[in-house]
Each structure stands twice: as C-alpha cells, then as structure tokens.
Amino acid sequence: MTEKAAWENIIAGRHPVKEALAANRSINKLLVAKGAGSGALQEILNLARERGIPVQYVDRSHLNGLVKDAPHQGVVAVAAAKEYVSVDDILAAAYPQDPFLILLNEITDPHNLGAILRTADAAGVHGVVVTRRRSAPLTPAVVKASCGAVEYVRVARVPNLARTITYLQERGLWVVGACGTARDIYWDVHLDGPIALVIGGEDKGLGRLVREKCDQLVRLPMAGRVGSLNASVAAALLAYEVVRQRRRAHGRVPDR
C-alpha cells in the first residue's frame, strides 16, 4: 500500500470488504471502480446500502494508486480512524448527568471537526453527532487536528440529523441551534439542562429543516464586519457557556 492508504485504513478486495461490512466495522465510504461487474459486487453494495455507507464510483486507476501490494478487485473500503457509536450509547454514557451533546450539520472541513472534538473533550461533552453524507468522516486528518481528543469523545454517525433531533427531543433534551439571524444572543438563554447544541456547516450554516426542528435558535454577537465565526470557534463559545451555566446552577463559581 501507499503511505496514504496505510494511514487511511484501506481495506481492499471483495472478500475483505465484505467481511468488514458483515462485522459492522466503521466504514467511512466504499470506492468502487467504474464498470466493475455489478453481479459480483452486488452483495457488497447491498450491505453498504443497509448500513447507509456512501458508495463512490471512481476510475480504476484511482484504486490502483491507493492499493499497490494487493489486488483490489474493483472495490476498496475506507475505514474510520475510530469506531463510531450510537446516539443511545452517548445518552447511556451521560447517565446520571444531564446529557450534553453537540450535533454537526454538514461540517465538511476535517480540521474544524478535529477542533470541535478537542473542545468537546475539554468541555465535558458526552458525545458528538455527525451525518453520514456531506460531513467530514473520522480520518487521520481529524485525529491530528483533534490533538488526540478523538480517542476520548464518543462520535455517532446518523443518516438524518433532523430525525435525530426529534429523537433527542422525545428523550427530554432541549435542542439549541446556532444561527446568525436568531433573535437571542446565546448568553441570554438557559443552557443548563439536558441539551444538544447544533452547529451549522462552514458555508451554509444550519439547513432549513434542521433549523426548524430546533427548540431555540441563538446567535453570537458580531460587532465587526465579518459576518460569522469559524464553526469550531462558535462550538467552543456555546459549549463553554453551557459549562458556565451548569456550574452556576450547581452553586459553583466558574474557574478563573
């Protein structure tokens, strides 16, 4: 394998990929050669579809560049740098504390994701939720940007963020989204109970449906000419406001 392939946990060949899928290994995506025999790969594609794993069709030369020491047979799986967990795993790990989650709506920059995971670890967030599509997966670049925090933060990967928000609301969480056009500034609202913060993507912010699903929207005050802050900076500000309010609610003075 190339150095890049080794770093990205490449699994090559029909049988190894099928076994990885059957064993529920965390897979970021499948790469399938254009024109590869669909019959021989159909079982693999069906398994990927059942698990909601994205499939990307690429030129065979691309797979040849990734895998040099073993036959890829037209299919390669890119495994996650760390195993994903379920949303229920995160909620169970929070008990008996009030759950504190960060939900990411199409954060595509691995450096932003890594920085958010670093903040999540520092602020005591119980878990981070990302989407399967149009979001940065857990890759070595994310691991590096997180400065090791990815090893300590639970990350769930869901097919639909709006449905996940509804699921969390049914379990008593208050869902607060960061939105530049919101009426309330984030420090003026209560953030001290079971809570999920929703941070939007680098370019578009919160999607319309996700925005409508939130219980409350808050904004960061922007006194300058720049319209918004980096997603990881916004996540850090909101997360530490949750920390501050929780400490105050429990009669403790914030650290100086």
Automatic annotation (TrEMBL):
InterPro entries: Alpha/beta_knot_MTases, Ribosomal_eL30-like_sf, rRNA_MeTrfase_TrmH, SpoU_MeTrfase, SpoU_subst-bd, tRNA_m1G_MTases_N. SMART domains: SpoU_sub_bind. Keywords: Methyltransferase, Transferase. It is an enzyme of class 2 (transferase). One of its GO terms (molecular function) is methyltransferase activity. The keyword Disulfide bond does not apply. GO terms for biological process: methylation. Residues 10-85 form the RNA 2-O ribose methyltransferase substrate binding domain. Its EC number is 2.1.1.185. The keyword Nucleotidyltransferase does not apply. PANTHER family: 23S RRNA (GUANOSINE-2'-O-)-METHYLTRANSFERASE RLMB. Belongs to the class IV-like SAM-binding methyltransferase superfamily. RNA methyltransferase TrmH family. NCBIfam families: rRNA_methyl_3 (TIGR00186). This is 23S rRNA (Guanosine2251-2'-O)-methyltransferase. The lineage of its organism: Bacteria, Bacillati, Bacillota, Clostridia, Eubacteriales.
